Amino acid sequence: MGGTILRTENLVKTFGGLRAVDGVSIKVDERTLTLIIGPNGSGKSTLINVITGFLKADSGRVLFKGEDITNMPPNEVYRQGIVRTFQTPQLLKSLTVLENMLIANVHPGEGVISALRKSQWLETEEEYVERAWELLKFLKLDHLWDRPAGSLSGGQMKLLEIGRALMTEPELIVMDEPVAGVAPSLAHDILQKLVSLKEQGITVLLIEHRLDIVLGYVDHLYVMFNGKVLTEGKGRVGIERVVNDPRVAEIYMGG
Ligand SMILES: Nc1ncnc2c1ncn2[C@@H]1O[C@H](COP(=O)(O)OP(=O)(O)OP(=O)(O)O)[C@@H](O)[C@H]1O
What we know:
Blueprint: E1 4-15, E2 18-24, E3 27-29, E4 33-37, H1 44-51, E5 59-64, E6 67-68, H2 74-80, E7 82-85, H3 97-102, H4 112-117, H5 119-123, H6 125-138, H7 154-167, E8 172-176, H8 184-199, E9 203-207, H9 211-214, E10 220-225, E11 228-234, H10 235-243, H11 246-254
Parallel strand pairs: 4-9, 4-10, 7-8, 8-9
Antiparallel strand pairs: 1-2, 1-3, 1-5, 5-6, 10-11
Helix pairs in contact: 6-7
């Protein structure tokens, strides 16, 4: 484990009178897998939306590698080295698996066509194809390279979404429910892939409901409730303590 790559300080996001994120301070260490759990409506998605620039904070700060990135627009956050994946993979379903990989570097808000026309893209085209191919092999999607993305299974689409995120060579990947709706064996495959990303220097921050499947892969666990961090734990012992905390069972039973 290295130093802290991402930190939030007293982050607040309100919707009208509702404090969806209510003074959240978290730390994500380099090359770890950090998981945020919490019952529905506890503020997890809002928190990662604020971190990744999809929502503006009312107050508090987001620091990435020590730099203040609070309220930067998503494309700026992305340029800093943070990539986001969504619960529903954001794929272009009529394009092939390989094509989806190749257009992954299109900045949010930038048209696909104009990005593809860029001379800069053409210069690095060979490199991109190589990288896409390596990643497809890593994700065991290479045999599907010429299939339309829309013909993949739900789990394969999640993998392709991860592949697209990795095409951008991120330092931090923020994921919204990467194994939701995925069969257990493929879910474990996906999580093992995420663990092996740590060895490549990538840090993973994720939200996930399926604790039974995810917990064994996690280095740092945060529990959110009512917009706040209820408790947290690091390492086997710390995580075990959180999981056995009666307050955690209580919020899930209440929700
Ligand atoms: N755009 C919005 N406008 C108004 N209220 C919102 C908005 N987004 C979220 N909320 C509210 O903020 C609170 C936190 O929601 P959020 O989606 O962050 O929770 P969550 O922990 O991610 O839940 P889930 O696990 O169901 O995705 C909820 O009460 C929700 O209804």
